[in-house]
Each structure stands twice: as structure tokens, then as C-alpha cells.
Amino acid sequence: MSSHRAQSYYQVRFEWGAEGARAVADGVHAVVWVDELGSEEVPELGVEVVAGALRSADAVARWSLVRQAELGGRFVIAVVAAGARQEDGTLRFAVEDLLAAGAVISAISDLGIDHTSPEAAAAASAYAGLRNATRHLVTASVSARELGGVQLNLDPVAEVERIR
Questions:
Q1: Inter-residue contact 95 to 51 (CB < 8 Å)
Q2: Which domains are seen in the chain, by residue range?
Q3: Would the pTM of this model clear 0.85, i.e. be above it?
């Protein structure tokens, strides 16, 4: 993978799926794996991986700020939207993961870790622009319909879930 795909110039990076996670994991301190409806397996990346979601965006942001203080320097983080695997193995866009990843990136930026890649900025902007419609968009999404409908809990959580 080229350093351009790795977004190595940026402190906050954004990508899609396991392949994207591998592309941006080099040089990061942690990866936030965003799978809002919980349908994809988390790839092994060799760095700390935490779960991100709409309801944990603020907790992930606070955790990131604490980690940066512990490091005494820039905390580099990649936010990865899981997407959805289709029957043929290809990755499908998942609006619920885009919005949740955007919420995480936005919350991180709001706390001052804001040297974001263009990809991360676009995800955050998608969330900001659609914030008031998030519940409807997620519950009406292709993924939610494939699951037979979902109830979306947006009650904030205080703790970050460590995956690896």
C-alpha cells in the first residue's frame, strides 16, 4: 500500500473495511472499528482496536484525548467503517457505518484532535449534515432491512469497548 492510501500525513484517518483498515493502520496508535449494526468481523491489525458507534462517539473522543495526554504528543487514530460484505465477498457501502464513523470523527475533532484527512473530514461532514435524520437513515438502511429491522439505541455510553 502506498503512503498516500495510508493517509500518513494526518492524525485522524478514515477508511472502509478490513482492507482499508490494513492500509491506514501503519503508524497509528489505535483503530476505531465502526460496525453500527455488528455484522462484520474485526481484522487483526497489530495495534489497539476499540469499537466505535453512534452512542460511543463521545466516549471514544474522550478516550483519544486521554491517550494523547498519556503519549505526551500526537495520538494518531484511524476510524474504519466496517461496511457490509456481499455474498460475492465484495464490500458494500453501509450508511449506518458512515454516519457512526462520522460521529466519532466529529467528536474527536470537537475535542481538539482535528488534523483530519480529507476522507475523515468528509465522513464527519456527512454526519453533521444528516445528524437529525440519523435514526431514520440507520433503521431504514439496506443493512437494517436485511436484518429484518433494528431498534437503534442512541443512549450514550461512558466507556470505550476494547476489541484488541
A1: no
A2: 3-146 (3.40.1010)
A3: yes
